[in-house]
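Q: I'm writing up a methods section and want to include an example of the input and output format. Could you take the sequence below and give the corresponding predicted C-alpha coordinates, formatted cleanly so I can copy it straight into the document?
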Amino acid sequence: MNHCDVTQPSPQPLSRGERGVELPRAHGAPVLAADMRSSDTDFFVEELPGFDASGAGEHLLLTVEKRGMNTAFAAKRIAEWAGVAESAIGYAGLKDRHAVTRQRFSVWIPKKIAPEIAQLESEELRVLEHSWHARKLPRGALAGNRFVLTLRNVAGERARIEARLAAIAARGVPNYFGEQRFGRDAGNLRKALAMFAGRRVRREERSLLLSAARSELFNRVLAARVESGRWDAAQDGEVWMLDGSHSVFGPEPLTPELCTRLDAFDIHPTGPLWGCGELRSAAAVREMEWAALQGDTASRLRDGLERADLKQDRRALRLRPETLRWRWPAADVLELGFSLPAGSYATVVLAELGEVADVASQRERPDENAGAPCGTPAP
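A: Here is the clean output for your methods example:
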Protein backbone atom coordinates (compact mmCIF):
# COMPACT_ATOMS: atom_id res chain seq x y z
CA MET A 1 0.00 0.00 0.00
CA ASN A 2 1.32 3.42 -0.94
CA HIS A 3 0.52 5.68 1.99
CA CYS A 4 1.60 8.74 0.04
CA ASP A 5 -1.27 8.31 -2.45
CA VAL A 6 -4.07 6.09 -1.21
CA THR A 7 -7.85 5.96 -1.35
CA GLN A 8 -9.17 5.46 2.16
CA PRO A 9 -12.40 3.69 3.21
CA SER A 10 -15.08 5.98 4.56
CA PRO A 11 -14.54 6.35 8.33
CA GLN A 12 -17.32 5.16 10.61
CA PRO A 13 -17.91 6.62 14.09
CA LEU A 14 -17.24 4.64 17.23
CA SER A 15 -19.96 4.79 19.84
CA ARG A 16 -19.27 7.79 22.02
CA GLY A 17 -19.34 5.77 25.23
CA GLU A 18 -17.15 7.30 27.93
CA ARG A 19 -14.82 9.20 25.61
CA GLY A 20 -14.62 12.96 25.51
CA VAL A 21 -14.59 13.11 21.72
CA GLU A 22 -16.36 10.83 19.27
CA LEU A 23 -13.73 8.65 17.62
CA PRO A 24 -14.21 7.56 14.01
CA ARG A 25 -13.19 4.10 12.86
CA ALA A 26 -10.58 3.93 10.12
CA HIS A 27 -11.57 0.58 8.62
CA GLY A 28 -15.26 1.22 8.03
CA ALA A 29 -18.51 0.01 9.54
CA PRO A 30 -18.57 -2.57 12.37
CA VAL A 31 -18.29 -6.22 11.35
CA LEU A 32 -19.16 -7.74 14.72
CA ALA A 33 -20.79 -7.29 18.08
CA ALA A 34 -19.35 -9.26 21.00
CA ASP A 35 -18.67 -9.40 24.73
CA MET A 36 -15.24 -9.13 26.30
CA ARG A 37 -14.10 -9.96 29.85
CA SER A 38 -17.04 -12.25 30.56
CA SER A 39 -14.58 -13.79 33.04
CA ASP A 40 -11.08 -12.84 34.17
CA THR A 41 -9.54 -15.60 32.05
CA ASP A 42 -10.96 -14.04 28.88
CA PHE A 43 -8.46 -11.17 29.14
CA PHE A 44 -4.81 -12.24 29.44
CA VAL A 45 -2.00 -9.69 29.29
CA GLU A 46 1.71 -10.25 29.82
CA GLU A 47 4.32 -7.53 30.11
CA LEU A 48 7.26 -7.80 27.73
CA PRO A 49 10.25 -6.72 29.86
CA GLY A 50 12.40 -3.85 28.72
CA PHE A 51 15.60 -5.22 30.31
CA ASP A 52 17.10 -8.29 31.99
CA ALA A 53 17.69 -8.43 35.73
CA SER A 54 21.32 -7.67 36.63
CA GLY A 55 21.49 -10.44 39.22
CA ALA A 56 22.97 -8.13 41.84
CA GLY A 57 21.67 -5.27 43.96
CA GLU A 58 19.12 -4.60 46.71
CA HIS A 59 15.95 -4.65 44.62
CA LEU A 60 14.22 -8.01 44.27
CA LEU A 61 12.55 -8.29 40.87
CA LEU A 62 9.42 -10.43 40.99
CA THR A 63 7.54 -11.61 37.91
CA VAL A 64 4.07 -12.54 39.11
CA GLU A 65 0.88 -13.88 37.59
CA LYS A 66 -2.25 -12.56 39.24
CA ARG A 67 -5.97 -12.91 38.73
CA GLY A 68 -8.76 -10.63 39.93
CA MET A 69 -6.21 -8.21 41.38
CA ASN A 70 -5.14 -4.80 40.12
CA THR A 71 -1.56 -3.53 40.25
CA ALA A 72 -2.01 -1.27 43.27
CA PHE A 73 -3.54 -4.06 45.36
CA ALA A 74 -0.76 -6.45 44.36
CA ALA A 75 1.88 -3.84 45.26
CA LYS A 76 0.30 -3.42 48.70
CA ARG A 77 0.29 -7.18 49.24
CA ILE A 78 3.96 -7.44 48.21
CA ALA A 79 4.90 -4.59 50.56
CA GLU A 80 3.15 -6.34 53.45
CA TRP A 81 4.92 -9.60 52.59
CA ALA A 82 8.34 -7.91 52.51
CA GLY A 83 7.66 -5.74 55.56
CA VAL A 84 8.46 -2.52 53.68
CA ALA A 85 6.64 0.68 52.84
CA GLU A 86 4.60 0.74 49.64
CA SER A 87 7.01 3.40 48.33
CA ALA A 88 9.66 0.65 48.18
CA ILE A 89 7.66 -1.17 45.50
CA GLY A 90 8.19 -0.42 41.82
CA TYR A 91 6.24 -1.50 38.74
CA ALA A 92 6.40 -0.59 35.07
CA GLY A 93 2.71 -0.37 34.21
CA LEU A 94 -0.83 -0.58 35.59
CA LYS A 95 -2.88 -3.69 34.95
CA ASP A 96 -6.62 -4.04 35.48
CA ARG A 97 -8.30 -6.24 38.06
CA HIS A 98 -10.60 -8.12 35.67
CA ALA A 99 -7.90 -10.10 33.90
CA VAL A 100 -5.14 -12.64 34.24
CA THR A 101 -1.95 -10.59 34.14
CA ARG A 102 1.76 -11.19 34.28
CA GLN A 103 3.91 -8.26 35.32
CA ARG A 104 7.07 -7.31 37.17
CA PHE A 105 7.42 -5.70 40.57
CA SER A 106 10.59 -4.59 42.34
CA VAL A 107 10.98 -4.59 46.12
CA TRP A 108 13.75 -2.63 47.84
CA ILE A 109 15.19 -4.92 50.53
CA PRO A 110 18.42 -3.23 51.72
CA LYS A 111 19.84 -6.22 53.61
CA LYS A 112 18.76 -8.63 50.83
CA ILE A 113 16.91 -10.82 53.33
CA ALA A 114 13.60 -11.62 51.70
CA PRO A 115 10.85 -13.71 53.28
CA GLU A 116 9.99 -17.06 51.74
CA ILE A 117 8.39 -16.66 48.32
CA ALA A 118 5.75 -19.23 49.27
CA GLN A 119 4.44 -16.83 51.93
CA LEU A 120 3.48 -14.36 49.20
CA GLU A 121 1.69 -16.79 46.94
CA SER A 122 -2.03 -17.55 46.94
CA GLU A 123 -4.72 -18.72 44.54
CA GLU A 124 -4.82 -15.18 43.09
CA LEU A 125 -1.06 -14.55 42.89
CA ARG A 126 1.86 -16.75 41.83
CA VAL A 127 5.54 -15.83 41.57
CA LEU A 128 6.94 -17.03 38.25
CA GLU A 129 10.48 -15.63 38.51
CA HIS A 130 12.59 -13.69 40.99
CA SER A 131 16.07 -12.17 40.77
CA TRP A 132 18.08 -9.33 42.28
CA HIS A 133 18.55 -6.05 40.46
CA ALA A 134 20.43 -2.79 41.07
CA ARG A 135 17.57 -0.27 40.74
CA LYS A 136 13.89 0.20 41.45
CA LEU A 137 11.64 -0.69 38.52
CA PRO A 138 10.51 2.63 36.98
CA ARG A 139 7.20 3.34 35.28
CA GLY A 140 7.29 2.63 31.57
CA ALA A 141 10.23 0.21 31.75
CA LEU A 142 8.67 -2.40 29.49
CA ALA A 143 8.95 -3.18 25.79
CA GLY A 144 5.22 -3.75 25.41
CA ASN A 145 2.42 -6.14 26.28
CA ARG A 146 1.24 -9.45 24.83
CA PHE A 147 -2.51 -10.10 24.82
CA VAL A 148 -4.74 -13.14 24.44
CA LEU A 149 -8.37 -11.97 24.36
CA THR A 150 -11.47 -14.11 24.13
CA LEU A 151 -14.63 -12.52 22.70
CA ARG A 152 -17.91 -14.29 23.39
CA ASN A 153 -21.41 -14.07 21.94
CA VAL A 154 -19.86 -12.96 18.67
CA ALA A 155 -22.43 -11.85 16.08
CA GLY A 156 -21.26 -11.20 12.53
CA GLU A 157 -20.19 -12.92 9.34
CA ARG A 158 -16.97 -14.84 9.89
CA ALA A 159 -15.61 -13.99 6.43
CA ARG A 160 -16.08 -10.23 7.04
CA ILE A 161 -14.56 -10.45 10.52
CA GLU A 162 -11.49 -12.28 9.24
CA ALA A 163 -11.13 -9.83 6.34
CA ARG A 164 -11.17 -6.95 8.85
CA LEU A 165 -8.56 -8.70 10.99
CA ALA A 166 -6.35 -9.18 7.93
CA ALA A 167 -6.72 -5.47 7.13
CA ILE A 168 -5.76 -4.53 10.68
CA ALA A 169 -2.71 -6.81 10.51
CA ALA A 170 -1.61 -5.21 7.25
CA ARG A 171 -2.39 -1.57 7.93
CA GLY A 172 -2.74 -1.13 11.67
CA VAL A 173 -5.25 1.03 13.53
CA PRO A 174 -5.40 4.64 14.75
CA ASN A 175 -3.29 4.91 17.89
CA TYR A 176 -6.01 6.49 20.05
CA PHE A 177 -5.70 6.71 23.80
CA GLY A 178 -8.18 4.20 25.20
CA GLU A 179 -11.15 5.14 27.37
CA GLN A 180 -9.26 3.80 30.42
CA ARG A 181 -7.19 6.99 30.29
CA PHE A 182 -10.28 9.14 30.83
CA GLY A 183 -11.95 7.28 33.68
CA ARG A 184 -15.55 6.24 34.07
CA ASP A 185 -17.91 8.54 32.14
CA ALA A 186 -14.88 10.70 31.21
CA GLY A 187 -14.58 11.70 34.86
CA ASN A 188 -10.86 12.42 34.59
CA LEU A 189 -11.52 15.06 31.95
CA ARG A 190 -14.06 16.83 34.13
CA LYS A 191 -11.64 16.69 37.06
CA ALA A 192 -8.83 18.05 34.86
CA LEU A 193 -10.97 21.01 33.81
CA ALA A 194 -11.87 21.64 37.46
CA MET A 195 -8.19 21.45 38.42
CA PHE A 196 -7.29 23.94 35.71
CA ALA A 197 -10.04 26.23 37.07
CA GLY A 198 -8.40 26.24 40.50
CA ARG A 199 -9.60 23.14 42.31
CA ARG A 200 -6.85 21.56 44.41
CA VAL A 201 -6.07 17.88 43.88
CA ARG A 202 -3.68 15.40 45.44
CA ARG A 203 -0.20 15.25 43.95
CA GLU A 204 -0.63 11.66 42.78
CA GLU A 205 -3.92 12.56 41.06
CA ARG A 206 -2.48 15.60 39.29
CA SER A 207 -0.30 13.52 36.95
CA LEU A 208 -3.28 11.33 36.01
CA LEU A 209 -5.44 14.36 35.18
CA LEU A 210 -2.71 16.04 33.14
CA SER A 211 -2.33 12.84 31.13
CA ALA A 212 -6.09 12.67 30.52
CA ALA A 213 -6.14 16.27 29.26
CA ARG A 214 -3.22 15.65 26.91
CA SER A 215 -4.76 12.42 25.66
CA GLU A 216 -8.08 14.11 24.85
CA LEU A 217 -6.35 16.72 22.70
CA PHE A 218 -4.29 14.07 20.91
CA ASN A 219 -7.43 12.02 20.21
CA ARG A 220 -9.11 15.10 18.71
CA VAL A 221 -6.26 15.56 16.26
CA LEU A 222 -6.14 11.88 15.36
CA ALA A 223 -9.94 11.76 14.91
CA ALA A 224 -9.65 14.64 12.43
CA ARG A 225 -6.94 12.77 10.54
CA VAL A 226 -9.12 9.66 10.40
CA GLU A 227 -12.09 11.71 9.18
CA SER A 228 -9.90 13.09 6.40
CA GLY A 229 -8.66 9.60 5.48
CA ARG A 230 -5.03 10.63 6.11
CA TRP A 231 -4.27 9.14 9.53
CA ASP A 232 -1.56 6.85 8.16
CA ALA A 233 -0.67 8.79 5.00
CA ALA A 234 2.05 11.36 4.44
CA GLN A 235 1.20 15.06 4.19
CA ASP A 236 3.26 18.22 3.82
CA GLY A 237 4.65 19.34 7.17
CA GLU A 238 4.64 15.89 8.79
CA VAL A 239 6.65 15.15 11.92
CA TRP A 240 7.84 11.54 11.95
CA MET A 241 8.56 9.02 14.69
CA LEU A 242 10.95 6.10 14.25
CA ASP A 243 9.28 2.74 14.83
CA GLY A 244 10.08 1.23 18.20
CA SER A 245 11.36 4.48 19.68
CA HIS A 246 10.27 7.96 20.68
CA SER A 247 12.79 9.62 18.37
CA VAL A 248 11.18 12.18 16.09
CA PHE A 249 12.39 14.14 13.10
CA GLY A 250 10.97 16.60 10.61
CA PRO A 251 9.19 18.32 9.18
CA GLU A 252 11.17 18.01 5.98
CA PRO A 253 10.32 17.84 2.28
CA LEU A 254 8.35 14.74 1.32
CA THR A 255 10.52 12.33 -0.68
CA PRO A 256 10.05 8.88 -2.23
CA GLU A 257 12.40 7.53 0.44
CA LEU A 258 10.13 8.77 3.23
CA CYS A 259 7.13 7.20 1.50
CA THR A 260 8.97 3.89 1.24
CA ARG A 261 9.87 4.00 4.93
CA LEU A 262 6.27 4.84 5.79
CA ASP A 263 4.96 1.88 3.78
CA ALA A 264 7.51 -0.39 5.51
CA PHE A 265 6.35 0.78 9.00
CA ASP A 266 9.85 2.08 9.67
CA ILE A 267 8.43 5.52 10.46
CA HIS A 268 5.02 6.82 11.52
CA PRO A 269 3.25 10.19 11.25
CA THR A 270 2.71 11.83 14.63
CA GLY A 271 0.28 14.07 16.46
CA PRO A 272 0.86 16.54 19.31
CA LEU A 273 0.97 15.85 23.02
CA TRP A 274 0.18 19.37 24.12
CA GLY A 275 2.40 21.62 26.22
CA CYS A 276 4.36 24.85 26.14
CA GLY A 277 5.99 25.89 22.88
CA GLU A 278 5.10 25.90 19.22
CA LEU A 279 3.60 23.02 17.28
CA ARG A 280 6.46 21.26 15.55
CA SER A 281 4.40 20.39 12.48
CA ALA A 282 4.10 22.68 9.47
CA ALA A 283 2.02 23.35 6.35
CA ALA A 284 -1.10 21.18 5.88
CA VAL A 285 -0.45 19.07 9.00
CA ARG A 286 -0.14 22.10 11.23
CA GLU A 287 -3.35 23.60 9.84
CA MET A 288 -5.28 20.38 10.49
CA GLU A 289 -3.88 20.00 14.00
CA TRP A 290 -4.64 23.57 14.96
CA ALA A 291 -8.17 23.36 13.57
CA ALA A 292 -8.84 20.20 15.63
CA LEU A 293 -7.72 21.95 18.82
CA GLN A 294 -10.21 24.80 18.70
CA GLY A 295 -13.31 25.27 20.85
CA ASP A 296 -13.93 26.18 24.46
CA THR A 297 -13.07 22.82 26.04
CA ALA A 298 -9.94 22.33 23.95
CA SER A 299 -8.83 25.88 24.72
CA ARG A 300 -9.20 25.32 28.47
CA LEU A 301 -7.28 22.05 28.24
CA ARG A 302 -4.47 23.64 26.22
CA ASP A 303 -4.21 26.58 28.61
CA GLY A 304 -4.14 24.32 31.67
CA LEU A 305 -1.40 22.11 30.23
CA GLU A 306 0.70 25.14 29.36
CA ARG A 307 0.28 26.61 32.86
CA ALA A 308 1.34 23.22 34.24
CA ASP A 309 4.59 23.77 32.31
CA LEU A 310 4.38 20.60 30.21
CA LYS A 311 6.40 20.71 27.01
CA GLN A 312 5.26 19.92 23.48
CA ASP A 313 5.84 16.28 22.55
CA ARG A 314 4.65 13.89 19.82
CA ARG A 315 2.98 10.46 19.62
CA ALA A 316 2.65 8.09 16.66
CA LEU A 317 -0.73 8.28 14.93
CA ARG A 318 -0.86 4.63 13.93
CA LEU A 319 -0.44 1.34 15.72
CA ARG A 320 0.11 -2.06 14.16
CA PRO A 321 -0.47 -5.15 16.32
CA GLU A 322 2.45 -7.54 16.08
CA THR A 323 1.93 -11.27 15.43
CA LEU A 324 -1.84 -10.84 15.16
CA ARG A 325 -3.52 -14.25 15.07
CA TRP A 326 -7.03 -15.55 15.64
CA ARG A 327 -9.01 -18.76 16.00
CA TRP A 328 -12.61 -19.81 16.61
CA PRO A 329 -12.92 -22.17 19.62
CA ALA A 330 -16.68 -22.16 19.00
CA ALA A 331 -19.04 -20.68 16.42
CA ASP A 332 -19.65 -17.57 18.55
CA VAL A 333 -16.27 -17.39 20.32
CA LEU A 334 -13.27 -15.58 18.82
CA GLU A 335 -9.81 -15.73 20.39
CA LEU A 336 -7.32 -13.04 19.42
CA GLY A 337 -3.60 -12.89 20.16
CA PHE A 338 -1.25 -9.97 19.50
CA SER A 339 1.44 -7.75 21.01
CA LEU A 340 1.45 -3.97 21.34
CA PRO A 341 4.14 -1.46 22.28
CA ALA A 342 4.03 0.20 25.68
CA GLY A 343 1.53 3.03 25.96
CA SER A 344 -0.99 1.62 23.49
CA TYR A 345 -4.37 0.02 24.10
CA ALA A 346 -5.85 -3.33 23.11
CA THR A 347 -9.32 -1.79 23.24
CA VAL A 348 -8.59 0.47 20.26
CA VAL A 349 -7.77 -2.64 18.22
CA LEU A 350 -11.07 -4.23 19.23
CA ALA A 351 -12.96 -1.03 18.42
CA GLU A 352 -11.99 -1.35 14.75
CA LEU A 353 -13.86 -4.67 14.66
CA GLY A 354 -17.13 -3.34 16.01
CA GLU A 355 -19.12 -2.95 19.20
CA VAL A 356 -17.38 -4.90 21.96
CA ALA A 357 -19.13 -4.69 25.34
CA ASP A 358 -16.98 -4.85 28.48
CA VAL A 359 -19.01 -7.22 30.65
CA ALA A 360 -16.83 -6.72 33.74
CA SER A 361 -17.30 -2.95 33.69
CA GLN A 362 -21.03 -3.32 33.16
CA ARG A 363 -21.28 -5.58 36.21
CA GLU A 364 -19.62 -2.90 38.32
CA ARG A 365 -21.64 0.00 36.95
CA PRO A 366 -24.41 0.87 39.45
CA ASP A 367 -28.06 0.78 38.46
CA GLU A 368 -29.02 4.30 37.37
CA ASN A 369 -32.17 4.00 39.50
CA ALA A 370 -30.35 2.85 42.60
CA GLY A 371 -29.58 5.19 45.44
CA ALA A 372 -25.93 4.24 45.86
CA PRO A 373 -23.15 2.46 43.96
CA CYS A 374 -23.17 -1.29 44.38
CA GLY A 375 -19.59 -2.00 43.28
CA THR A 376 -16.08 -0.63 43.39
CA PRO A 377 -14.75 0.57 40.03
CA ALA A 378 -11.52 -0.89 38.76
CA PRO A 379 -8.73 1.65 38.26
